[in-house]
Design brief:
Elements lengths: L18 H14 L7 H5 L5 H12 L10 H14 L3 H6 L6 H18 L21 H23 L22 H14 L27 H15 L7 H11 L2
The chain binds a DNA duplex (21 and 21 nucleotides) through helix 3 and helix 6.
Length: about 260
DNA sequence: AAGTTACCCAACCGCCCATCT
DNA sequence: CAGATGGGCGGTTGGGTAACT
């Protein structure tokens, strides 16, 4: 009856992940793909909850992740989508390739919210703050709004595959404390480079990749050019079947916006 | 230089829905 | 069909660090 519990909680480690743990997890996912998360820690030799492994992978170790602050385009898109979808971060993240729901949620709470308030816009309702009564949303606007979102998404998509980590915090636009340079993706990238280089599977034919051929995703040994990224995704999907590696956003976007 | 405050974000918590037995 | 779990999701927390006093 039912399923076995996710993890026995006893002897399960919590807190920040070590490089060793990251390597184990990456190694395991690369060899076995994402099977059931409950089994991952045991099979990978980790003293972690399966849930924790899933989170670590989707939010940090996934090879397609972009790093650094959200670009202006991405921010605009997040705001648009939030106006339509509310706090459904996973849905919003699905429209931003390489971004996680957690990342977007954090960025919203720490940056965008403040920006909107500064601009006199209620981050919840997206209405002017001094407005007394929030008018009912005009559904006639829906189509227009969605079109705007689609356009933004499309623009973004075209940037993503060709830009080299365009999210790098150049901060030419952010004028306030958002430009704080605490988020230094460089260190992270070094760490990730180390983790991925230490995995014995980088030249696994499954991935059909090598560090030498890498470009924008060089730190993960992934191809960078538009063509290559598409091919990489196809190989990726082909090799791992229907498993969702958190790349649904790409195929999703292709489905919705790829053809025009 | 030391202490305090503010900020950021990775990770955890708890809930919900789909799925399994 | 009912009960239980897995996986996904949004909300929250706590540690680390930069900025300020």
């Amino acid at each position: 009856m039912g399923r076995q519990p996710c993890c026995d909680k006893l002897g399960v480690k919590k807190g920040p992940w070590t490089v060793e743990e990251d390597k184990k997890l990456v190694n395991f996912i690369l060899t076995h793909g994402q099977c059931c998360w409950r089994a991952v820690p045991k099979l990978a030799g980790l003293r972690r909850c399966g849930k924790s492994c899933r989170l670590r992978w989707t939010n940090y170790l996934r090879p397609d992740l972009k790093r650094g602050l959200l670009t202006e385009d991405e921010e605009r898109l997040v705001i648009d989508l939030h106006a339509r979808l509310g706090n459904r971060w996973s849905k919003i993240a699905a429209r931003l390739p390489g971004r996680t729901d957690n990342e977007i949620k954090n960025h919203w709470n720490t940056h965008i919210k403040k920006k909107l308030i500064k601009m006199g816009i209620d981050p919840l309702t997206h209405e002017p703050l001094n407005k007394e009564v929030t008018p009912q949303h005009n559904h006639d606007d829906d189509h227009h709004d969605l079109e705007v979102i689609h356009e933004e998404s499309q623009k973004l998509c075209s940037h993503v595959s060709s830009s080299d980590n365009s999210s790098a915090p150049t901060d030419q636009n952010s004028s306030t404390d958002e430009s704080r340079s605490t988020s230094d993706p460089g260190d992270d990238d070094l760490l990730m480079n180390y983790i991925w280089s230490e995995t014995i599977f980088l030249d696994d034919p499954l991935w059909n990749i090598s560090p030498e051929t890498s470009g924008s995703y060089g730190n993960f040994g992934l191809p960078s050019s538009e063509d290559n990224s598409d091919r990489w995704l196809l190989d990726y999907e082909k090799d791992f079947g229907d498993e969702d590696f958190g790349l649904g956003c790409f195929s999703d976007m292709d489905m919705n916006y790829g053809t025009q």
